[in-house]
Amino acid sequence: MTFIGKDLKVVGTRPIRPDGVDKVTGRANFGADMTMPGMIWGKIKRSPHAHARIKRIYTEKALSLPGVKAVVTAADFPDIAAEEAFAGEAIMDFRDLSRNCMARGKVLYDGHAVAAVAATSPAIAEAALDLIEIEYEVLPFVIDVEAAMAEDAPLLHDTLFTQGVEPKPSRPSNIAKRINFTKGDVEAGFREADHIIERRYTGKPVHQGYIEPHACVAAVAADGQCMIWSSSQGHFMVRQYCAHLLGIDISNIRAMPAEIGGGFGGKTLVYLEPVALALARKSGRPVKIVMTREEVFRASGPAAGSVVEVKLGAKKDGRLTAGEVVLKYQAGAFPGSPVGPGCMCAFAMYDLPNASVTGYDVVCNRPKVAAYRAPGAPNASWGVESCLDELAIELGIDPLSLREKNAARDGTKAVHGPTWQNIGYAETLAAVRAHPHWTAPLGPGQGRGIASGFWFNIGGESSAAVHIAEDGTAAVATGNPDIGGSRASIAMMVAEVLGIPVERVRAIVADTASIGYTFLTGGSRVTFATGMAATEAAERVVEELKKRAAMMWEISPEAVEWRDGMAYPAGPNAGAFEPLSLGEIAFRSARTGGPISAELSINAQGAGPGFGTHICDVEVDRETGAVKILRYTAIQDVGRAIHPAYVEGQLQGGVTQGIGWALNEEYIYDGEGRLDNPGFLDYRIPVASDLPMIDTVLVEVPNPRHPFGARGVGEVPIVPPTAAVANAIYRAAGVRLRDLPMSPPHVLAALDKSDG
Amino acid sequence: MPHVVISGDMVRRFTGGEREFEVEATTFRRLVLELDRRFPGLGHQIEEGMAIAIDGEIFQDAYAAPIRPDSEVYLIPKIGGG
Amino acid sequence: MPGLSFIAPTTIDEAVRALASAPGLAKCLAGGTDLLVQLRSGRSRPELIVDTKRIPDLIGIRDAGDHFVIGAATPGASISACAPLCRAWPGITEAVDLIGSQQIQGRASLGGNLCNASPAADSVPAVIAARATCVVAGPEGTREVPVEAIVTGPGQTSLKKGEFLVEFHVPKPAPHQSDAYLRFIPRTEMDIAVVGCAVNVTLGERGVCRDARVVLGAVAPTPILVPEAAEALVGHWLDEETLARLDAAARRASKPITDKRGTIEYRIKVAGVLARRTAAIAFKRAGEC
Amino acid sequence: MKKYHVSTTINGEPVEFLCEPQQTLLDVLRDTLNLTGSKEGCASGDCGACTVIVDGRMVCSCLMLGVEAEGRTVTTVEGIATGDTLHPVQQKFLEHAALQCGFCTPGFIVAAKALLDENPNPTEEEARYWLAGNLCRCTGYDKIIRAVLDAASEMRREAAE
Questions:
Q1: Cβ contact (<8 Å) for A421 and B53?
Q2: A58 and A133 in contact (C-beta within 8 Å)?
Q3: Which of A513, A587, C41, D22 has the highest CB neighbour count under 10 A?
Q4: Chains adjacent to A (≥3 CB pairs closer than 8 angstroms)
């Protein structure tokens, strides 16, 4: 059943979220907030080298320290064979995941886990780390992507041969994969062009920067039953990965979802949980491990750094004839950068007759990248959206018109093949044109830029259960950790279907033993896919309620209508009965067949793609290179905003991360291959005083595959900001920045260069 | 008979470079089985690593995804997210 | 940290005795905003921590006639809230206010900011520019020294074992004397200064500068007093020519390093820019008081 | 390791605890007293998730030793509401959807309350600078600032009545 176009009472309003009071009073329990009887503390010994062979690990001294209960190294984990599985945003190899959690044979980056201890206090565990001695043979290392691609680069993996190249290369290299998408005749397209532009854009790895460090508690009972409490984007993922990495039956692990303090893709895989389990198994005690902020930066996944080469050809009137992009993405220590999606996103916004996109997935001595909001897309769009702006300037066309002229619409064939349908990109451009921000006057030293962004969004496996209580209130359980208010949107959809106020629906996140399998919270899928499961479960409950009413009235269920939380006889022929409320039906449910509930597990398809366009005003201090964001408007097709405040919040948060990516965030390595800024002091995420209010416009082009028309919204907003800011800087100061971050020293150097 | 295009070049090692096929199939499952019959190993590769776009709509891990005779069918890399 | 102990003496003598007799490393704890970070990271592994905040002389601000006395452990929030001090030395109070967040302001002190001996300490250039002195207590009694005599290099001070800072003496401004402090950071808050600059000027007749002190931070191993920059101001109005000379002098005096917070070239250039901007504020203030 | 006996007042209640000298006030609150509302995001004073009020001043509890709490009065996020009645700042955070993951929220609640205690009528800029020591990675601060300013006007209205 679809609710699109219907008059809705709950969806589209802004109720208070069900978990809100716990979160403003400090009662909500996050990863590190759990304690268990007899619990001890784990800590991880990490590599100080960017690349080294582990010759020997001496754990005896640590083990003899009073209070130390267990020490583990790679020897305590099965040495599993290469086995690929789809995970997070890319194909992932469990062998790599295992070796990322605990180095085996070699350490591949500064911060790589080598051993772990569990002790009766954090201080003892810390002291024990110092007593673990490791003999290393230090190896040459490589940090940057193009250096890693060089013929003579130090090799991370002797067994890595570039995939996607035929014939198979005879020598291993750091290039894990080459991928290409081609549409039309690229050479002919460039021949047809009146104007060709070719530029190169670079970016450093940036971290997701969730404020909650990774944390977990694991316990193993004598019969092998395991419990894991952790903060992750998917406790089913935690269960599956831990089972795999430690050789445990999935049913022997119960994973409990803690509240999660931000993830943005960075908590779609495991770091601590298998180690805590191994320590718990060895010590016989529950073990808690909490990362320090420094560990988060050194050892958990950032987003890929990249080099992006863009070539565009266009007619004088701005019509694009051809495009060519080369993406070189850093995967970190193991293969698996999001270069594949990057390739598909590069030209996704445009109707380009001829195009070629080539991507390289490159390993280097940095932490393995993890998904980060629209993984792969921001890097590609940083290049393409900047280059389009440069093209607009060279052609003397305004950048909005250039985009309007080339925008993908329903029926446009994407470079990666499929024909778009039900997309709202052009609508976002129209909204830009109509927005007062677009024509607002600017002062001296100020400039305005625009840029667009795209993300696929996904569906996937989701389970939801709706239970009706004896008094007619309801509970809805799902298997997705609530990272940004999804309990609210799920409860709202259920309330809408049941026809009751949202305050009468309690939404909870159930553990892995209490609800059907649910894929992780990521890819902007929860409101879409899990919302779909919850909606359908609620619809089944309504069917059941109608049946129960029919039984009470002794009429046929088809003769019962459900409106506003009440059963009504459907028309005069059904009989003259007083309507029955949900509460009245629930109260008598024992007599009509037992408790009323429905659980549904689906694999949701048809996630509608998301497009957005942003307008950014900046002011540049020509003497210091400082860039101030004066005004920012994010416009996005959201399908249908279930809880508009949290949709706006997704846009505002994504924009702010994008602004951080644009201006100041970067991984800085020293000459020894060690991360030089592993803390919030020098890894500079935006603070409140850096920003203006972030205005949003929610364009609603409904997604026909979702009962309420919802699309995923969380990923798109991080895509446009880097280019929007660069394009604004150009108009404010006349200099084109092509390397991220556009921090004051870089901007000033560019200004100095342009002043000659 | 649906025209099927494998987007990108990641399965060249199975198909020897061929990317476009006419495949008699009414579902994704049938399509995978048929392609695997022609190029042994390709089926697993598609199931693990690829999504199917049928007339512009993306399906992931969906054997039953329906294919019509005139459908536009693309096999593209699977999508995740952050 | 096996064997770490903690005391919170209530008199200067008690603190001196504890610091002087500690066999290993002993650390003074004022606001703790640097020390606790160092403890946590293992960069500092003391055997004794002496909390000085319970010694009455170290907390609070007094008017002592021709000068203010600021207890070395007085938190920044008290300093910024002291109206007479803000009127007298807006540059000093602004500099203190720039140290970290509002939360940090609840703890961070002038004494701690100085003794942490970071070249980028925000409050230090401003107090040096005001010709402040500090009183150091130690086993040999107390001594009063110019603030600029304390820091000798990054993380290094001239304090001897058993010595610690008790208070700062900040002379009151003369007529038409005022100050300003600016720093450059990549964000608007929460960063360590890439360059800091304090300017303290006294204006004479018709707004001509009679006396000046210019101090730069984060461009050398310690905050540096730049007499050449002061000379560029003394005897002049603040016109374009004066500003250009000041800018050049500040650049010449800067001997920074390249690190994760800025490059040599960038710091030198911004030192000149900040010197000009800070001087403009200081001149304006001095002209109005 | 030697433990120190500390007597203090937390959220209006007298509290005594034992702590090791290197333990921070945050460690004590979370691990000894089970007051886990204050969060550790960085342990270096950069994120503000551990913000508490000590003797009327807001501080990062990760940058204060537990032993320093002797004789002090501490307010944590658990002490901001009065019984079942939320503080206006808490209520406005809910109404404005000023939290997503909610991890930074306790620090923001404490810091915002401290702001409004000191300045009942802050400008947007004043609120942004006061809260610059509290990092939020989810919201982009927009709704947080709106919630704080709305709470301020609500409290002014209440005070005027």
A1: no
A2: yes
A3: D22
A4: B, C, D
Query: Are D94 and D64 members of one domain?
Result: no
Q: Are C229 and C272 in contact (CB under 8 A)?
A: no
CB contact under 8 A, C190 and A687: yes
Q: Which of C116, C185, C187 best tests the A interface by mutation, with the highest count of A CBs <10 A?
A: C187
Residues of chain B with pLDDT below 50 are none
CA-based nearest residue in chain C for residue A294:
C41
Question: Going by C-beta distance under 8 Å and a sequence separation of 6 or more, which residues neighbour residue A575?
Answer: A553, A555, A559, A569
The per-residue pLDDT for B8 is 83
Question: Can you give the residue range of the structural domain that contains A279?
Answer: 34-139+212-261+267-299
**What is the tally of structural domains in chain A?**
3
Q: What is the pLDDT of residue B16?
A: 85
* pTM, two decimal places: 0.97
Residue A571, pLDDT score: 86
A positions 11-30 inside 8 Å of D (CB): 14, 16-17, 19-21, 23-30
Q: Is the bond preceding residue A569 a cis peptide, omega within 30 degrees?
A: no
Q: Please tell me the class of the C56-171 domain.
A: alpha beta
Residue A7 lies in a domain: no
What pLDDT is recorded for position A89? Answer: 44
Tens of pLDDT, residues D42-68: 999 999 999 999 999 999 999 999 999
Q: Is A482 a domain residue?
A: yes
* Residue A436 included in any domain: yes
Residues A589 and A541 placed together within one structural domain of the fold: yes
DSSP secondary-structure letter at D31?
A: I
Q: Around C244, how many Cα atoms within 13 Å sit in the side-chain half-sphere? A: 3
Distance from C-alpha of C278 to C-alpha of C243, rounded to nearest angstrom: 10
Output the average pLDDT for chain C.
Answer: 96
Return the residue in C39, C40, C190 with the most chain A beta carbons within 10 A, the one to mutate for interface testing. C190
The band of C236, judged by pLDDT with boundaries at 50, 70 and 90, is very high
The minimal CB distance from B80 to the residues A421, A523, A714 is found for: A523
Of B55, B78, B80, the CB nearest to A419: B55
Q: Do D136 and A483 touch (CB under 8 A)?
A: no
Residue from the list D22, D81, D140 with its beta carbon closest to the beta carbon of A694: D140
Asked if the Cβ–Cβ distance from A684 to C189 is below 8 Å, we say no
In a shared domain, residues A509 and A618? no
- Give the fold, CATH level 3, of C5-51: 3.30.43
pLDDT (0 to 100) of residue A84 = 62
Contact B61 A460 (CB under 8 A): yes
Chain D residue numbers with beta carbons less than 8 Å from the beta carbon of C1 are 1, 21-22
Residue with tokens 């800024």: A677
**What CATH number does the domain located at C177-288 have?**
3.30.390.50
Domain with CATH 3.30.43 in chain C: 5-51
> What's the gap in Å between the CA of B71 and the closest CA on chain A?
11
Among candidates C41, C189, C260 on the partner chain, residue whose Cβ is nearest the Cβ of A676 = C260
Q: Write down how long chain D is.
A: 161
Q: How many folded domains does chain D comprise? A: 2
What pLDDT was estimated at residue B1? Answer: 86
Amino acid letter, residue C282 = A
pLDDT score of D138:
98
> Could you tell me how many CB contacts below 8 A there are between chain A and chain D?
191
Q: Using a CB–CB cutoff of 8 Å, tell me whether B53 touches chain A.
A: yes
Average pLDDT, chain D: 97
Number of alpha helices (DSSP H) and beta strands (DSSP E) in chain B: 3, 5
**Could you say which DSSP state residue D12 is in?**
T
Segments in chain A below pLDDT 70:
84-91, 756
Query: Any idea of the CA torsion for A204, A209, A213, A218, to the nearest 10 degrees?
Result: -80
Looking at chain D, which residue has its C-alpha nearest residue C8? D68
And the tokens for A559?
């003769």
The dotted CATH code for B18-77 is: 3.10.20.30
Establish whether this prediction's ipTM goes over 0.90: yes
